[in-house]
Amino acid sequence: MPVLVFGSINLDLTVRVPRLPGPGETALGAGGLGTAAGGKGANQALAAGRAGGGQVRLVGCVGRDGFAGPALALLDAEGVDISRVRRTAAPTGVALIAVSDAGENQIAVASGANADLRADAVPEDWLTPDTVLSLTLEAPPAEVLALARRAGPLGCRIVLNAAPALPVPGELLDLLAVLIVNRHEAPVVAAEAGLGNLAPADAARALSRGRAAAVIVTLGAEGALAFRGAEAWRVPALKLDRVVDTTGAGDAFAGALAAALELGMGWTDALARASAAGGLACTKQGAQPALPRAQEIDAALARLGPVVRIDAN
Ligand code: RIB
Asked: Which of 4, 135, 141, 253 has the fewest CB within 10 Å, making it most exposed?
């Protein structure tokens, strides 16, 4: 059963600063520039592979420049199938990232070659009923919808991490098995769906009503909430001694969830593994270098509290 990721590939250029700059402000970082592989699609593919997902495939685009190699190196080394990553005339995607002493980040992305990604780059025989298809909104949203339109009727389980915060058309929401949003994304998606201005948890709850999709809202150190039909769960966060860098934590969560679903794990086990993976990703610097492996996730689960059923209302 494969995990198929259709998404972005970036090279992350990171500066550590005491605190994140505001508009018009310059923040001075004492150290050097950090360079690491990133991009939400690529991160989620590697996260799924490291979390124990069997076969992981990534469909994406990079440029023909010097950034493409380092952006793909870990994926290639760790067995993610990148045979459908296309080289285009545009430059490889780049993310400019500032990370504060508290581990919070601020990210601006130059999409570059990611904008060349097209749904028809995914071969038909990769869209099977045992495929977990992972999508994010760093890929061109129209292509994300076009791929979901093909994959849904073919029986793929589609997981959308609606990141970065962009509106999601109702048609796409209706094709999903799982929607993952964070506290910034949930209100944006709910507002676009005509549900009004809602707080993150209320937005996730409202988005799940009348839809087949389970909706998960991640809440950082407060864990996550999951809503599915008439059921709801509170998912604890891993308690961390120190948050080094939150970059890629959402990708670790989404990738580990996709891997768990692909492995046929139960829903609450999948939620627990995703939360543990997201927490662990905050304990190291960078996106892909910090993504945890299955053994680390297994060990962390012993420290994670239980996923508990809560009142869905
Ligand atoms: O989610 C983290 C990722 O967002 C980074 O790796 C960066 O490339 C941006 O895409």
From this structure: 141
To the query of whether residue 251 is one of the catalytic residues in this protein, the response is: yes
Q: Which residues of 21-55 are buried (b: 16+ CB within 10 A; e: fewer)?
A: eeeeeeeeeeeeebebbbbbbbbbbbbbbbbbbee
- Return the residue matching tokens 């550590």: 16
Question: Residues 251, 269, 298, 311: which is the catalytic one?
Answer: 251
Task: State the residue for tokens 């999409």.
Answer: 111
Tokens of 167: 């509106």
Tokens 């809602």: give the residue.
198
Residue 77, pLDDT score: 98
CA distance from start to end of the chain: 35
Question: The whole model's pTM is what?
Answer: 0.97
In sign, the C-alpha dihedral spanning 248, 280, 268, 234 is negative
Structure-block tokens of residue 215: 């909706």
Report d(CA 144, CA 96) in Å as an integer. Answer: 24
Contact 277, 255 (CB under 8 A): yes
Would you say the CB of residue 39 lies under 6 angstroms from ligand 1?
Answer: yes
Query: DSSP string of 111-144?
Result: -GGGGG--GGGS-GGG--TTPEEEEETTS-HHHH
Report how far ligand 1's centroid is from the alpha carbon of 12 (Å): 7
Mean pLDDT by 10 residues, the chain (313 residues): 95 98 96 96 98 93 98 98 98 98 97 98 97 98 98 98 95 97 97 96 96 96 96 97 97 98 97 98 97 98 96 86
Mutating to test ligand 1, I would choose from 72, 251, 253 the residue with most ligand atoms within 8 A of its C-beta, which is: 251
